[in-house]
Amino acid sequence: MAPEPEQVGSPKCGCHDCYIDYPPETHGERPPNSACVGPWRARYRTGGKHRSKTLPSRAEATAFLATTRRGRNAS
């Protein structure tokens, strides 16, 4: 099964999970959001090493993983 991108929390985000991870007392007040606005992490392996790359959107992270899979399957 291929890995999927995962969303990374952000101290600038106002969603419930980010409020817990980054409390307003230490990271400042911000307006509440229903959806997280943090970046996306794409995890992959090259040469047996685990690597990751952070991208601004899920579409970009998914496209990046697709290119790494194509490169791996071509060899």
Automatic annotation (TrEMBL):
Q: Which organism is it from?
A: Streptomyces acidiscabies
**By what name is this protein known?**
Uncharacterized protein
